Amino acid sequence: MIHDILPHKLFNDFKTCGPKPTDYLIRYASGKTLLKACKATEKKDSATGTKDDAYNIPRVGELLALEDKKLADFEGHYLFCIDDTAFFLDDSNASRMDQTPPPPAGYEYMVSRTFRNMSPVERLGGATAAHIAHWESQNKFCGMCGHPMTRGEKERSVVCPKCGNVVYPRISPVVIVAVRNGDKLLMAHNIDNPNPRLFLISGFVEIGESLEQAVHREVLEEAGVKVKNVRYFGSQPWPFSDSLIAGFTAELDGDDTIHMQEAELSEATWVRREDIPEYETDVSISCCLIENFRRGFTLD
Ligand SMILES: [Zn+2]
User: Fold this and answer.
1) What is the value of pTM for the model shown?
2) Taking burial as the number of CB atoms within 10 A of a residue's CB, which of 80, 98, 178, 279 is the most buried?
3) pLDDT band for position 63 (50/70/90)?
């Protein structure tokens, strides 16, 4: 899954420090991150099953050189590091613009989904940095009094210097569930997902409910069936939607007739184990849950 980056290690404790030229630099504007497009000859063929790493995250020294600046001119702040390479968030004028500024030649502003095709370190680091950048971009002004916010000095937060309001990074809980019906798995396709493959029922946890209650509600809402024996499987950060995803397995309880929620799903169906194709488990817990079922593993 996205957070499994061994032998690399994420160090996300809060601190303030300056960058080295080889550290990563996240320049984030209008919901997109500036990435370096690899030369065509460096692109790998996705049809062969290798990763299409057509973009890389720029380094601090690289962007400073492009703009004829020195390390002393750097405007940005430390986010976290993976091994001994840090991720910094750019605070220069380019990141303060309300619209995406013109990128330097050879670079493009890309959506966070682009990080999914990168190496494990750039995938986790880039997407997590973009999650923080998104949160900061939404909290430039105090929600209590409207005053401009400043960055917290002792923890990852933004603080209102006028009224004292403190805002922490937003992490929204999500549940996802593999519902078994004998040798069949409940699979679905969300209308908003550009990936045409079938995945699992999932959704944001509502205020006032537990993770398990959210599982029961989501399956009933989206597929019209009831579940029992809801069991915790594992969790993962999911920075692409500012989320933490809790994965569960469950069994069908009663009638297996699916009543699909057409406002959210384009398909919901029971898929026999032998008809499920192989899913790569290196990024999402959804694929891990599907593979867990496909390979016949159970947690019971
Ligand atoms: Zn305030």
Assistant:
1) 0.89
2) 178
3) very high
